[in-house]
# Entry
Amino acid sequence: METPNERLTAFSIELIDTHTWLREELARLRADIDAYLDGVGGRPRDLRAHCLTFCSALTRHHTGEDDHVFPALADEFPELRPTLEKLREDHHLVADILRRLEVLVAEADPADARRVRSELDGLAAILESHFGYEERRIASALDELKQTFDSSGLDVRVLTDGPAAP
Ligand SMILES: [Fe+2]
Ligand SMILES: [Fe+2]
# Structure
């Protein structure tokens, strides 16, 4: 059976793994749209499905952070609250982009592919800074939590039993 520290380590690794997966999926999606714009890509229907799958995976990841991870960390590390607030603001910005993307994709006009590509560029820029900041701040908080776990009394299941990341 896992010790609390092992669970925290596993959670930290899972956070970074999920970011890595999302980064790779976004890169693949951008490449697919480029191929489509160059006239050598797949069908718009496949691109649409890929885009919507990515949007929902990213939304699920951020909802898990907002509803489970951040409240638990805020309780344990009040000094982290401004950081968590900033990360939540990023989630709102990302959600706005995802809403625009979903509308564009649902309209299914191939002429919109350039606008989709441009929204994905904006999304990639925000996510790159967001993921990096989150990994630095959250991973270091988790490391600190591991060191002080014996006296913290935090129920780490709050962190590790949230909705499964993709
Ligand atoms: Fe996040
Ligand atoms: Fe994240």
